[in-house]
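Researcher: I'm preparing a figure for a lab meeting and need a structural model of a single chain. I don't have an experimental structure, so a prediction will have to do for now. The sequence is pasted below. Please return the structure as tokens so I can convert it later.
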Amino acid sequence: MQAQPDDETCGPTCLHSLYRHYGLEEVTFRQVLSSIQRLDNGGTLAEILGCDALRRGFDATIYTYHLQMFDPSWFASDGLAHDPADLTDRLAKQSRAKKGDRRFRISTRAFIEFVRLGGKVKMQDLTPGLIRGYLGDGVPIIAGLSSTFLYRTPREAGAEDDDIMGEPQGHFVMLVGYDGEAREVLVADPLDPNPPFHTAKYRLDIDRLVNAILLGILTYDANLLVIRPKAKGSRGRGVGKRLSRGRGREGGGG
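Model: Understood. Here is the structure written out token by token.
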């Protein structure tokens, strides 16, 4: 993975890396960046990334834990929405009723478009088994999480650390491997270098990862974005893999 060129492009950087993983070499990073809507305060949303993947012919599923956006009663016991049309209708009604901020409205529109394009939205328990299942099958995951909790760094006010007036920050990383014995996930982080790992790839205790993902609800994150080719049995090029028992940190690209 190449390093993100600025503080606001972690999402497009992860998405471009995933496209390359699946052999979509002809799509440049600049093309991905230009096709992804940015929020007013910088960054983007998983549902916007998912729409781009769907338009390029991939399948996409978002596991969401965003209770400000989704009501648990909208989902069946298997995690899927009871009915996609009903889900988009409820999202539209909620947007009109709540009249949230601009980010809430952008997220609502993006989720409606995501479902319209054939994307699946699921709400089910965020367990190590859910993450392990995809990584064990060689399917990388883009995770939207709290970078403040992940890195254990001060909250931020603008571009400056401020432990008093600051707000928590969100981030996208890719989950690319799992060591079952150590219960560690291999993370490919577009922010290189980053505190406190100082490398683009590192191992992370899965319980800490789960907490970081769930705390992403504070920044309109708290999700897993799973993108795969439509063709059955299609596999990537080995990025998502099981890890050896070795505990050393993985080094490598940005």
